Design the sequence.
């Protein structure tokens, strides 16, 4: 499992490769918070390479979303497979996040 | 039972018969062990033709929750304590038992519904909810240690 970060236009794009679970959630959180501290405000997490997400992974996404909003920014999610979509629907977190089918869609009007 | 080769200081054994398999895994109180255990159990369920959705979502997420509860809360990440995982799978159902060395807890004390609008911004509190949502049955009991048993029937 690993995270890669790149800048696309004005958006920080994070790719999650593997699982987002209790063992690596802090790494993701720190990487995003470092970018937020550096002045970035638009964030997109791309889950096209992600397997499963546990409750602590979901918790980190909620936490990051809160912190980014507090700074006037936004966190969007993209490329969730059907299983991950189900996970967000079960927890009703699909109502909390802007979730796009593709990275391109997520970048629209960001 | 045949020995399984595992990383992170984990150990395991496996036995099988016509239409069933049993696994016993012992892992240290280290969250880095979770992925490997999930992979072993998922592979077993795939071999028993459990539906793809179960192998990609229900089993990995519910088992990861039970393991992280056992490691973090039950054993307090104490390196001197271990977590025992018993897996029983056949053509009818999967039964997972995750045993830690903690004092246990009462399932009815954790009935928060994290999907309520006022709870949605919580960062924690979704673990048991997900286990219940993704498994057919979630039980807890003591057998000298604290055991959470998850049961998932094939459709």
Sequence:
């Amino acid at each position: 499992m690993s995270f890669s970060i790149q800048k696309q236009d004005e958006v920080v794009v994070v790719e999650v490769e593997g699982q987002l679970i209790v063992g690596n959630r802090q790494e993701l959180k720190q990487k995003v918070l470092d970018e937020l501290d550096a002045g970035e405000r638009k964030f997109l997490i791309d889950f096209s390479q992600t397997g499963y997400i546990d409750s602590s992974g979901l918790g980190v996404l909620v936490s990051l979303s809160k912190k980014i909003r507090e700074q006037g920014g936004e966190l969007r999610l993209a490329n969730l497979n059907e299983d991950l979509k189900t996970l967000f629907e079960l927890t009703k977190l699909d109502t909390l996040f802007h979730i796009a089918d593709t990275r391109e869609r997520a970048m629209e009007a960001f | 039972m045949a020995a399984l080769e595992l990383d992170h200081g984990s150990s395991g054994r496996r036995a099988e018969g016509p239409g069933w398999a049993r696994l016993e895994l012992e892992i240290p109180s280290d969250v880095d062990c979770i992925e490997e255990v999930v992979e072993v159990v998922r592979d077993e369920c795939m071999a028993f033709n459990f539906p793809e959705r179960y192998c990609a979502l229900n089993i990995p997420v519910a088992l990861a929750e039970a393991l992280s509860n056992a490691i973090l809360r039950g054993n307090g990440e104490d390196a001197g304590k271990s977590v025992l995982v018993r897996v029983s799978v056949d053509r009818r159902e999967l039964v997972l038992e995750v045993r830690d060395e903690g004092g246990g807890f009462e399932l009815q004390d954790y009935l928060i519904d994290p999907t309520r609008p006022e709870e949605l911004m919580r960062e924690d509190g979704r673990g048991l909810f997900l286990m219940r949502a993704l498994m057919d049955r979630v039980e807890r009991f003591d057998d000298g240690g604290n055991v959470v048993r998850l049961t998932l029937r094939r459709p």
Observations:
- Strands of chain B lie at 2-4, 11-17, 20-28, 82-90, 93-100, 137-142, 146-153.
- The longest helix of chain B spans residues 52-74.
- The first strand of chain B starts at residue 2 and ends at 4.
